[in-house]
Amino acid sequence: MLKRIFYILSVLVLGAGPLCAMQSDTYLIDTPTAEVLALRDFGLRTRFFSGGGVLTYFDFTVINRLSIGASFTVEHLIGENDEDLKLLVPALQLKYRFYDGSEVLPAFALGFDNQGFYYDHDKDEYKQKAKGLYFAATKEIFTPGLIFNPGLNVTVDDFELDKLAGFASLAYNIKDAVNLMFEWDNIHNFKDSRLNAGGRIYITEYFALDFAVRNFNGKAERIAQLKYTCSL
């Protein structure tokens, strides 16, 4: 089943080549950057995670510098199990890049994301809270292709503000072929923070495949993710 889904999505994405262009890394694994898609670009990320779940993000730049998106989670979609399919309540994503940066200063963006992880049906809440309201910066440092993305966020439970946290990521782009990613997320206290690492393989200019390990300093989870961007 998983191979079939990968095959279908790959054919659809590769077949859309003439309409697509080189994508911006607006998100790495779990942390945002200050990048936004170009005007009238449409982005899609499909994540396959533990328990046969699929999380899909849709992202569209409606006006210059402002993107709006939504995400949908379907549990028990992949694999052979006796569990019923469960579609969780969709989540909202917004991002506004208000400064493009300079030789000295990074680019800055404000955003909102209420997509959480690991839904607890008994408590009717996510175990890992959503990023919530966040401030992100992006700057190339030290050597070409090495990008630093620090940020602050106030996590949310549904739409209610929860706690102040931070995040930071490094991404190293190797000749637009591979992007190595490392994240330190949910920096509220060391115990609850999460370390993520992975690689993004650019199969074409518009289509990428991610492999990553989330929370490898705790209860590790391996994920795979498809990502593409098209100009409409």
The CATH architecture can be given as: Beta Barrel
What is the approximate shape?
globular
Helix share of residues?
under 10%
CATH class reads Mainly Beta
Q: What is the total domain count?
A: 1
What is the averaged pLDDT score? Answer: 85
Strand content: over 45%
Question: How much is the radius of gyration in Å?
Answer: 17 Å
Quaternary structure state of the chains depicted: single chain
Strand order of the largest sheet: 1-2-3-5-6-9-10-11-12-13-14-15
Query: Structural class from helices and strands?
Result: mainly beta
Which descriptors would you attach to this protein?
1 helix, Porin, 12-stranded antiparallel β-barrel, two-stranded antiparallel sheet, mainly beta, disordered N terminus, about 230 residues, 15 strands, about 5% helix
Structure description:
It is a single chain. With 232 residues, the chain is mostly beta strands. It has one domain (2-231): Porin (Beta Barrel). 6% of the residues lie in helices and 56% in strands. The chain contains 1 helix and 15 strands; from the N terminus they run αβββββββββββββββ. Strands 1-2-3-5-6-9-10-11-12-13-14-15 form a 12-stranded antiparallel barrel. The longest helix is centred in the N-terminal third of the chain and has 13 residues, at 2-14. The protein is globular.
